[in-house]
Amino acid sequence: MKSFKVHETDLGNGLRQRAHIYRGGKNTPAVCIPGLTRNAADFEELAHRIINLGRDVIALNLRGRGPSDYDPDYLNYHPLTYRDDVVKTLDDLGVSDAVFIGTSLGGITTMLVNQAARDRVKAAVINDVGPDLAPEGIARIAGYVGKTAGPAATIEEAAERIKAINGVAFPDAPQEDWIKFAYRTFRETEEGWVLDYDPNIARALAEVGPAPDLWPAFESLKEKPTLVIRGGLSDLLSPEIVGRMRAVHPDFDYAEVPRVGHAPMLNEPAAWEAIEGFLEKHG
Predict the structure, then answer these.
(1) I need a labelling partner for 66 at 20 to 30 A (CA). Which of 37, 40, 41, 206 fits?
(2) What is the pLDDT of residues 73-91, one digit of tens each?
(3) Residue 204 counted as domain residue
């Protein structure tokens, strides 16, 4: 299924950010930004669905994730840096504006891009994150990021590790889905299977925190078509936070994915139906 080309963007200081480019048509492209420790592989199935709607997809590997370079200064693992990296990639590709689809950290980055460069975001899909972050979700994430028992000997062992962390979010997932999950989040080395992100991301999270004040950034989206997707079991985006979001952006579209926690993969029927309808309205 991997019918994409890799585009490299020079971020300065010798660092390269790599994006997966799927060609689908002449409608406004979609920019997909993954979560805290995730990479562009999370969007592979979604990207193929979107290109069938007639638009290109740019799926990003943020610095320190997947095939993008690791930053020797871990304090650069911060949403404001990712915001600038995304804009630089769009400039590099000659993309004037796009529909943004951001999962968790990717949703935070989307808000910040719109606040700083409003002409770049035509519409936004915010997946299971808001301008407030529920403390129980933050505590759970901080409890596993950067922590590992060493390389896994097999992909099956890697899948069991991922299931132990994320099983609460996907209680109905069959075993084959956990194998797919492991291939997206681990890479094979001579020592075995290791998580495909820089563990120093955990240091940045602990020392700097997950994000700056996001309410002004989220409020900036009230001028843009916005779809908020929440996992029905999410511990990061609570119904109460969604209610507060309505107070500043009353008109956003909303979809909830049943029996899924943080964060929906966006191929679930409820998520895809909402995204497909949203993209058809905001081409």
Answers:
(1) 206
(2) 999 999 999 999 999 999 9
(3) no
